[in-house]
Amino acid sequence: MSSSSFPALLLAGTFAQFADRLALDTITLAATQAGASPRLVGLLVAAQSAAWLLVSLPAGVFSDRLAPRDLIRFGGALIATGAAAGAALLAAGHTGWLLAATSFAAAAGAVVIALSIFVLMPRTVAIAELPRANGRLELGRAVFSLAAPLIAGWAVSRGQGWIGLSLCALAGVLALVAASRLPGEHPPSQQRLPLHLAIVEGGRFVARHPYLRPIALCAIAWNLAFFAFSAIAAPYAARVLFLAPERIGLATAVYGAGLLAGAVSGATLIARLPVGIVLVFGPASSCVAAGLLALAPPALGWPALALAFFLFGFGPILWFIAQTSLRQAVTPQPLLGRVSATLTTAMYGMRP
Length: 352
Prior knowledge:
The protein contains 13 helices and no strands. With 352 residues, the chain is mainly alpha-helical. The longest helix is centred in the C-terminal third of the chain and has 30 residues, at 301-330.
């Protein structure tokens, strides 16, 4: 595959990440505004994110076996269908289990696309350019992560949360269109193990690797904490800090600013700093963010919330770019999908 495929790869990944982020923000804000209990908000977050736990491992096997272009198309179709159904439910005022089911379907599409892009990236660019290429991919995600909470807050504050999910559906269609510009080549032929044994092979490689094993353990702990924070952030901001949906959306958008700052500076910092320092800085900045928010008085609620989201974006995005480039470089090509699925399960499987 030539480097001319990178723009299409970048667009497909960016649209998928935007849809996933906007769906999460829209659902949590819409449910909170509708008077849902914090428990129901947590249930919706869990359903939307459960795809990363349940779909990642089998999707990783198929990404090692099938043409990535076909998988990205399939993922885009899932996003479009699930988000469109969710938009219809929000327009009808429904925030229960049916909304959770459509969110799961749309998120499954984002999972498939993310794994396919991870497999394609080392074929698209040289190993030395992986941090810069992954940084550009994360830069696109950061820009849309900055916009997603603003869009969600604007739509929900006007009682039109369905607009947010409609935009998610459009992003799925655009990801599907971008995938059409990718070559349709299949991975090299390899031994076809049964699904469960193929999954175990990828997990065994991660568990035995001196770099990937600690990355996976760090990912489990950080994502458990971050998505617990995501589930309580909107109810906490609305009911303890007494912030309006627009203010909550604006504070959450600062997370995108942190992602943007980290994505812009990521390749340069990774080139100049030891990889170990970068990998430690990400979770350390998150600890500082959570501590500041917990200790802040209600009068400083909005600045504390905004600063916490910035730190949650800046440090971890550096960690993500560094570890993604590292695992792409050290993983054999036939195992890329399954190794990525194992790490994805570790990173995102803690969301529910």
